[in-house]
Amino acid sequence: MRHFITRIGISALLVLGVVGLSASTSSAALKDPVHLRIATAGIGGGWYIYGATFASVMRKALPKGSTIDVLPIAGSVGNPKLVNKGDAEFGLAQTVTGYWATKGIETYDEPLNNVRAIAGGFDELWMAFIVDKKSGLMSIDEVKEKKYPLRLLTAQRGGTGELVTRMILGAYGMSYDSLEEAGGSAKPVPRPSVPGIIREGKADAYSHSIMVGHPTVVELSTNVDVRFLPLKNDVIDELSKTGLAPVTIPAGTFKGLDKDVPSVGSPTILIVRADLDEEVVYTVTKALLENKAALDKGHAGLKPFDPETAWKQEKLSVPLHPGAARYYKERGWMK
Q1: For 22-26, which contacts have Cβ atoms below 8 Å and span 24 or more sequence positions?
Q2: Beta-strand pair 226-229/126-132
Q3: Which of 11, 324, 331, 332 is such that its CA lies 20 to 30 A from the CA of 153?
Q4: What are the structural domains, with CATH classification, of the chain?
Q5: Res 195: pLDDT
């Protein structure tokens, strides 16, 4: 798997590589090669592997000569903007960012009208606030109460995980500024750097949106004795008003996670340009939904995905593309 990720990573970074296997079957309706892009997130996160997995499945259903580039940029907040502008045909997002994007609220100045959905409910995503046990912290409250000089690592500024981190701190009466005033810090770093920084004692905590098998958190929890801090009920209630949902990170999901941890989350959705050819979208939807086993094999986080219910609006928060809707209706899943 390490060699696979490296190979895919190099091609995506250059935005030149063709991801996936040689096409073995092509759509009867599509004759000419198509050139597609999937916007994911940075290398070292689960979404990048999702994108490579989707590309492998999609590639086999497209005409010979088709290419799919996996773009390790933007993330949940930026991907809808890329898709809306036509800088990517597909993108991974979350239900919460899809909701914000189509409404033109929170981090979006106006509704993004060129964004539609293919499927939702691909996984279970949780906000995780993880601390090195050496910090002695048992709750997020203690950071403020003890004026603890917390050195917090986040994703790059502006992504969903980083935005929600700020929301969480705000709900506890804190901010990046207050962390600095107490002698701490809030530093955005690339995901692959997180485990090493905390292991070397240069940071105390990491806050981000994660799923089962998240590479960064697997490495972090394997090499550092960590604790997953729960969110208080009133904080969960406050954050739920923004479009996030109450969730539970199950005990045993990662090393050091000894009991269920209450949090908030927002599952992954696959969005698409509204103006993308309906036949292309139909072909891609069919390929993804008829290859559940390949998705499961690609990343453990995709195992909760249920093709039969992937069209439901509570799993999407974004209107379906007509090409995707046609497939769901043909299967009898959607009326």
Answers
A1: 22/60, 23/59, 23/60, 23/61, 23/62, 23/63, 23/64, 23/66, 24/60, 25/60, 25/61, 26/61, 26/62, 26/63, 26/64
A2: antiparallel
A3: 11
A4: 2-123+267-331 (3.40.190.10), 126-265 (3.40.190.10)
A5: 97
* Phi and psi torsions of 78, nearest 5°: -75, -30
Residue 28: per-residue pLDDT? 54
Q: What gap in Å lies between CA 135 and CA 138, rounded to an integer?
A: 9
Least Cα distance to 96 among 267, 305, 280 occurs for 267
Give the pTM.
0.78
DSSP at 232: P
As a whole-number percent, the residues of the chain with pLDDT over 70 amount to 92
Interval 94-123: pLDDT, tens: 999 999 999 999 889 999 999 999 999 999
Phi, psi at residue 63, to the nearest 5°?
-60, 150
